[in-house]
Amino acid sequence: MRLIEKVFNPTGKNHVGTLIFFHGSGDTGNGLTEWIRFLLGRDMEFPHIKVVIPTAPVQPYAPMGGDNSNVWFNRKRIEMDCPEIRTSLASIYDTVNEILIREMAQGVPASRIIVGGFSMGGALALHTAYHLNRDLAGAFAISSFLNTGSIVYDSLDGVAEDEHLPSLMMFHGERDTLVPTEWGQTTFDELAKLGVRGQFVPHRTALHEIKKDQLLQVIKWVNELIPEPRDPSSSPSPEPASTAATKKTAPAKKGKL
Question: Is-catalytic flag, 176?
Fold first, then answer.
């Protein structure tokens, strides 16, 4: 499924990395773009990194009584202990994988792709980086959580100690009443037990929202994971497109759907 996307190409000459930013439930790529623009006073752009902000497909969403909404996947309730609807997740996995394969086919290795998101979009980023493709550079999540018994935990169970896992940044408002901070902290702790390394950053005044200082920390972290080449004429040697696509379509040690 090809999604509607807001795309911000690198402002410089080289495209050596890609950031995919998933919006929260009920929002759109345009909505998230405007939110970022309001907070930063500009678009989220980098000299060397493409930013892709897709819009979730319209589908029935159980927490809204089955009404249609722009959501990445369906779920029964917004509760941590509610089981995932894995058939719904499987559908969006296919779509996200198409984006990853497209970026790799354009010469960007998985190790230079970062995924992130707000709320449900952050949950999708965690599924993407720790279940769908663990060769990515990193993942960030703002006001997000994984369900108890998530397929992500199943996928990470038994990971070899020397296996590369994407770096993680999680942010959470201490005044968030929709997704309590404890849900985010528990998610981070469970991922850490399974070998994921990163930071959990609480925000004393934030509700269920994105704050400017969180975005600034994300931008700094992204630049650290995917630094701008010192030589403007240089770029990383990408994997051949055909090899990258084949390799990423069937990631190893993937949990059952």
Answer: yes
pTM of the model: 0.90
What pLDDT does 231 receive? 67
Q: What is the DSSP secondary-structure string of 171-219?
A: EEETT-SSS-HHHHHHHHHHHHHTT--EEEEEESS--SS--HHHHHHHH
Q: For the CA atoms of the chain, what is the radius of gyration?
A: 17
Q: CA nearest 40: which of 211, 200, 173, 160?
A: 211
Kindly state the tokens that stand for 207. Answer: 């509700």
Please name the residues in contact with 33: beta carbons below 8 A apart, sequence gap of 6 or more: 6, 43, 53
Dihedral angle of Cα 147, 151, 155, 161, to the nearest 10 degrees? 10
pLDDT digits (tens, 9 = 90+) for 207-246: 999 999 999 999 999 999 999 988 655 555 444 433 333 3
Interval 36-49: pLDDT, tens = 999 999 999 999 99
Picking from 26, 38, 30, the residue whose alpha carbon sits closest to that of residue 8 is: 30
Residue 98: both structure tokens together: 């198409």
- Say which of 119, 144, 150, 155 is annotated catalytic: 119
Q: Which of 15, 25, 176, 203 is catalytic?
A: 176
State the Cα torsion 244-247-253-257 to the nearest 10°. 90
Among 43, 111, 208, 235, the active-site one is 208
Provide the residue count of the chain.
257
Q: Is 119 a catalytic residue?
A: yes
Other beta carbons within 10 angstroms of residue 58's beta carbon come to 11
Instruction: Give catalytic status of residue 208 as yes or no.
Output: yes
Whether pLDDT at 157 is above 60: yes
DSSP state letter for 38: H
